[in-house]
Amino acid sequence: MDPKKRFNIKQGLKVNIVLKQDQRSGKLTQGIVKDILTNSPTHPHGIKVKLQDGQVGRVQEIL
């Protein structure tokens, strides 16, 4: 599934995101989607989400 398309992202999905401070290194953070923050149907850098632990980043992989 393409993490750049909003319709592929659902609440409760396990995903890897890249946090704002990790964008240069590309370090991924794993978590469960709580909220979808991107309103547009697609985004070239990934859909922005908030994880259940409160961290915010762009989805790089759907697990």
What are the defining features of this structure?
mainly beta, four-stranded antiparallel barrel, 41% strand
Number of helices: 0
Distance between the termini: 9 Å
Q: Any idea what the shape is?
A: globular
Radius of gyration: 10 Å
Residue stretches low in confidence (pLDDT < 50, at least 5 long) are: none
Reading the helices and strands in chain order gives EEEE
Q: Which structural class is indicated by helix and strand composition?
A: mainly beta
Beta-strand content estimate: 35-45%
User: How much helical structure, as a percent, in the residues?
Assistant: under 10%
Largest sheet: 4 strands, antiparallel, barrel
Strands ordered across the widest β-sheet: 1-2-3-4
Mean pLDDT: 95
According to DSSP, the number of beta strands is 4
Explain what you see.
With 63 residues, the chain is mainly beta. The protein has no helices and four strands. It has strands spanning 14-19, 28-36, 48-51, 56-62. Strands 1-2-3-4 form a four-stranded antiparallel barrel. Strand 3 and strand 4 (56-62) form a beta hairpin. The chain is globular, with a radius of gyration of 10 Å. The model has no long low-confidence stretch (mean pLDDT 95).
